[in-house]
Automatic annotation (TrEMBL):
Principal location class: membrane
Keywords assigned by UniProt, alphabetized: Membrane, Transmembrane, Transmembrane helix
Subcellular localization(s) per the UniProt record: Membrane
Protein name: UbiA family prenyltransferase
Length: 293
């Protein structure tokens, strides 16, 4: 009886460890942000509950497939530089399990995306394919920013097509989310630039260096915010202007710190703060995603 209880406790601990590894390998922060942004867009354009849930689940499945495939594909690189923050290197999850999880999530994404409609589903699957192209090929090239621009830019188009068939997406929303994706890519690589350089992942941020990347990330994110503020037909309210002012201050601080303290992690944190404000403003502008008239 005691041995059986011990074995049961060991199984529970093993499952718990694996679950933590899968959660960490899914890149939970970006996955949650993109999924919640899609849900906010869906509600903003007037989707009913089933539509909003279906869109949200499709985006979540796509994001999980992208996150898990990233850690699966990068497993050898991560092990080469002993990245203990990565679940595969830490031993909490295996490469084989990540591969199966990524492919299962991708299969679920295909089903859920096409359930929103053939055209809308094709748009979302193109966005997910673009993200996978980063993991598979483009992250080591000067075009590492391109999948982020494409995938983020297609997000509002997918939501509008899935929730309001026949409606068109406002060009400002596509431009703003594409810029948000580029800025997020550059900012997200700042903490890992040395790891990337040592493993041959020579994407755009590595090629232009930390000081330039520390300046580029907040500038692109600030530009995305400007598009969100000035793009919609209705004039910005006080809250929107306040958000724009905050992003300007944060972006300026990130740029200055990036030039003065080239090894500081503060530009990354400040850039992420700019991205957070931009996301909030995008959520506030969600009802304006569709073209009027």
């Amino acid at each position: 009886m005691t041995c059986r209880a011990v074995r049961g406790g060991e199984r529970v601990r093993s499952w718990s460890r694996t679950a933590r590894g899968l959660r960490s390998a899914s890149h939970p922060g970006p996955t949650a942000v993109v999924t919640l942004l899609a849900a906010a867009f869906a509600l903003g354009v007037g989707a009913n509950a089933p539509q909003a849930v279906l869109v949200t689940l499709a985006v979540l499945a796509g994001q999980l497939s992208v996150g898990w495939s990233n850690d699966w594909i990068d497993a050898e690189r991560d092990a080469a530089v002993a990245r203990g923050d990565k679940p595969v290197v830490a031993g909490t999850v295996s490469v084989a399990l990540l591969r199966r999880a990524a492919l299962l999530a991708l299969a679920a994404c295909v089903v859920l995306s096409l359930a929103t409609g053939w055209a809308a589903g094709a748009v979302h699957l193109a966005a997910v394919a673009s993200a996978w192209s980063y993991n598979l090929v483009l992250k080591v090239t000067p075009l590492s920013w391109l999948p982020y621009a494409v995938s983020f830019g297609l997000l509002p188009i997918f939501v509008v097509m899935a929730c309001v068939p026949g409606a068109s997406t406002a060009p400002w929303a596509v431009l703003a989310t594409a810029l948000l994706g580029i800025g997020a890519h550059v900012a997200n690589t700042l903490p890992d630039l040395e790891y990337d350089r040592r493993t041959g992942v020579r994407g755009l941020p590595v090629r232009i260096g930390r000081p330039a990347s520390s300046l580029l990330a907040p500038l692109v994110l600030m530009l995305a915010t400007v598009v969100v503020v000035l793009g919609p037909d209705h004039p910005p309210g006080p809250a929107v202007w306040t958000g724009a002012a905050v992003t300007c201050v944060l972006a300026a601080a990130a740029g200055v710190v990036g030039r003065i303290r080239t090894r500081s992690r503060l530009p990354f944190a400040l850039s992420m703060a700019v991205a957070a404000v931009c996301v909030v403003l995008l959520v506030m502008a969600a009802p304006e995603l569709m073209l009027s008239g």
